[in-house]
């Protein structure tokens, strides 16, 4: 099989195997739409708490209403298929939240079993689900039941870490239990909860899991460049890869990776093209959040876009000074002016 290939997750057929990972605070629907523009085959919302879904009662509202949870849950306009990621520890509450997701028509429902943030794990959710694999199984079972009853039986998927810490590398057990409970794909970020986002991810765990499971395994971890995605696919035998930090400020990574996997020529975008994408991102974010909030939210994204410029044909001179100006931008006009003054708006 070619290294770039379609992936089937339960009854969901995806055209390719390059996914955008869930990244809280970054993979908003505006950013996801840019990744889809660049050929992302599948994308995930950031983690959304089951409780916040239940509280917001989306089934009683117009899905387009600008409620904060709605904005997290809604697909981007060009996003034909996406997964909503839920977190929670109580199987019944997960089922209840899942049952309310119908208005958005997600193509899959992903369960977060990897988030290391204290507030999340204290409630028994995120990576803490890996410490109680029986409960993880019940959470998946309830999600599957709700999907069958209310969501047209879309596949339920699970995202795991390698374990809680180096003494408890139980990803294989957790994945088996999740699959027995009905999970149709497992994504693995092979760092432990104790590692957070530091150190290196251990891809041998991805290879091990891919050899054990009958469902597709998606690999995550340290995919900063197209070549690394190709290496992960080759070395681990995973069905798909998901870009996380490597995509931030660089939605072009999807087009570049696809070209690499298909041995097609690829012209990397220069700084002007990259920053024009950042402005499109800002415009789409402003449509969701209003200009004021979008301009604040975009500061971190713009920093990522300017840093990614060094991946293109030429970096930008005075990148640090530019970032310093950008973090003070308050309006869309400010952003445009700063980029124009730096001579970066047009190639
Ligand atoms: C700031 C940040 C937020 C993240 N948010 C989520 C999340 O909401 N759900 C999730 O499953 N993983 C989340 N992740 C983990 C990523 O999806 C990914 O598995 C991890 O960053 C490893 O990939 P990378 O080393 O290529 O970044 C997050 C990672 C980062 C850095």
* Termini Cα gap: 39 Å
Oligomer: single chain
Radius of gyration: 20 Å
- Tally of contiguous helical segments: 14
Q: Identify the bound ligands.
A: flavin mononucleotide
Mean pLDDT: 94
- The CATH architecture designation of the largest domain is Alpha-Beta Barrel
Provide the succession of SSEs: EEEHEHHEHEHHEHEHEHEHHHHH
CATH topology descriptor of the largest domain: TIM Barrel
Instruction: Give the helix/strand class.
Output: alpha/beta
What report would you give on this structure?
This protein is 43% helix and 15% strand. The chain is built from 14 helices and ten strands. It has an eight-stranded parallel barrel, surrounded by eight helices. The protein has a two-stranded antiparallel ribbon with strand order 1-2. Strand 9, helix 9 (226-236) and strand 10 form a beta-alpha-beta unit. Helix 2 crosses helix 4, helix 6 packs parallel to helix 7 and helix 11 (271-289) packs antiparallel against helix 14 (332-341). 52% of the residues are buried. It binds flavin mononucleotide (FMN). The site of flavin mononucleotide (FMN) has 22 residues, from strand 4.
Question: What's the SSE blueprint?
Answer:
Elements lengths: L6 E3 L2 E3 L3 E3 L8 H9 L4 E8 H7 L11 H6 L8 E6 L3 H9 L8 E6 L4 H5 L10 H18 L5 E8 L7 H10 L4 E8 L10 H10 L4 E3 L6 H11 L3 E4 L9 H9 L9 H19 L1 H18 L10 H8 L5 H10 L6
Parallel strand pairs: 3-4, 3-10, 4-5, 5-6, 6-7, 7-8, 8-9, 9-10
Antiparallel strand pairs: 1-2
Helix pairs in contact: 1-11, 2-4, 4-6, 6-7, 9-10, 11-12, 11-14, 12-13
């Amino acid at each position: 099989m070619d290294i770039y290939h379609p992936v089937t997750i339960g009854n969901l057929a995806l055209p390719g195997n390059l996914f955008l990972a869930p990244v809280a605070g970054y993979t908003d629907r505006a950013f996801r739409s840019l990744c889809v523009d660049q050929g992302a085959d599948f994308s995930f919302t950031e983690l959304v708490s089951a409780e916040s879904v239940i509280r917001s009662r989306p089934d009683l509202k117009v899905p387009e209403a600008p409620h904060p949870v709605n904005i997290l849950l809604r697909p981007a306009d060009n996003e034909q298929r996406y997964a909503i990621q839920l977190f929670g520890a109580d199987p019944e509450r997960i089922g209840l939240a899942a049952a309310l997701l119908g208005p958005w028509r997600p193509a899959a429902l992903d369960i977060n079993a990897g988030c290391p943030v204290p507030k999340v794990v204290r409630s028994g959710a995120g990576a803490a689900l890996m410490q109680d694999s029986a409960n993880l199984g019940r959470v998946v079972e309830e999600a599957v039941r709700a999907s069958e009853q209310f969501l047209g039986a879309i596949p339920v998927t699970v995202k795991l870490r390698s374990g809680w810490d180096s003494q408890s590398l139980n990803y294989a057990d957790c994945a088996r239990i999740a699959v027995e409970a009905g999970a149709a794909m497992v994504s693995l970020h092979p760092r432990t909860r104790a590692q957070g986002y530091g150190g290196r991810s251990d891809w041998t765990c991805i290879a091990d899991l891919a050899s054990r499971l009958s469902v597709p395994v998606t690999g995550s971890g340290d995919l900063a460049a197209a070549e690394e995605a190709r290496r992960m696919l080759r070395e681990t035998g995973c069905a798909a890869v998901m870009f996380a930090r490597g995509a931030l400020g660089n939605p072009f990574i999807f087009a570049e990776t696809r070209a690499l996997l298909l041995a097609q020529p690829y012209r990397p975008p220069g700084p002007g093209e990259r920053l024009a994408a950042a402005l499109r991102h800002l415009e789409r974010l402003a449509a969701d959040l209003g200009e004021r909030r979008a301009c604040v939210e975009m500061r971190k994204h713009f920093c990522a876009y300017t840093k990614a410029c060094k991946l293109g044909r030429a970096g930008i001179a005075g990148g640090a000074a530019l970032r310093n100006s950008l973090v003070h931008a308050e309006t869309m006009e400010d952003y445009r002016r700063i980029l124009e003054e730096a001579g970066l708006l047009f190639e």
